[in-house]
Amino acid sequence: MKIDLCGIQLAGPVLNGSGTFDAIAARRAFGDALLERFPFHAFVSKTITLAPREGNPPPRLWETPAGLINSIGLPNKGLEGFFAHDLPELAELPVPLIVSVMGFSRDELGTLVQRAGERDEVALIELNVSCPNVETGLVMGADPAETARAVEHVRPLTDRPLIVKLTPNATDPAAVASAAEQAGADAVSLINTLKGMALDPRTRQPWLGGTTGGVSGPAVRAIALEQVGSVAAAVGIPVIGMGGIASGRHASDFMSAGAACVAIGTENFRDPAAGLRIAAELGERVGV
Length: 288
Ligand SMILES: Cc1cc2nc3c(=O)[nH]c(=O)nc-3n(C[C@H](O)[C@H](O)[C@H](O)COP(=O)(O)O)c2cc1C
Description:
288 residues; eight-stranded parallel sheet; globular; binds flavin mononucleotide
């Protein structure tokens, strides 16, 4: 099932959700077997910011009956650290590389997009305007006009295709998607995590070091499917659908709702080879 994603040729439609599969650690654990049977048809990096970040204080994860709440808080080496340490290793992956970036201002986002787009190793750029753990991310992606201003600002700075990752914590994600499309986005991806909270049963205080976190996994699948359907009906650009996908049946549901590609997130923590299994199950379902 070959896919043309914004002019980039993929051998199939299965991606990873940003921040849910550490390809560098997986290569260390599985060696070159990872490259021979790589679980995704394109690889999305975890979100990088301009300056290095420590992330949120622990604990960072809480398991819900059907998923996770995370408050990771975007720990990363920053743009220069990413170029120096991660990019050379990610460039060895056998699939196109999508770099996810997040800026705390439009200028910062512009610098990230411009610098990432200068690198031959980078096929596409994903704008994370939807991370609910960091205040500005919520503001930018929750409002159509703010999203449009961000995309208009960065669009002239690169010729790489731009994917805007939408937050489900918006009043009308389809309106945000349309605004992104009109401002020059080449694709949209959704959903990022939904805002959630867990209490420590002993202290009755918030469990997560970041107080609140993002809910993902099977618990969010029905919400994600509805949002993917309404966004796909509102835009003409490709939609990358995700949120609780754990089987080929789920992936095919998202594609029936209008997604051109799907991404696997939380399921990767349960089964690092989930991408391979889901691609095979999807192939059986659609008969390829
Ligand atoms: C532990 C964890 C870390 C994540 N990190 C990022 C990130 O760095 N950037 C981002 O855009 N989304 C991040 N996400 C969101 C996922 O990419 C995905 O949008 C979301 O989890 C929904 O898919 P899922 O239900 O299949 O996990 C993260 C999710 C989890 C669970």
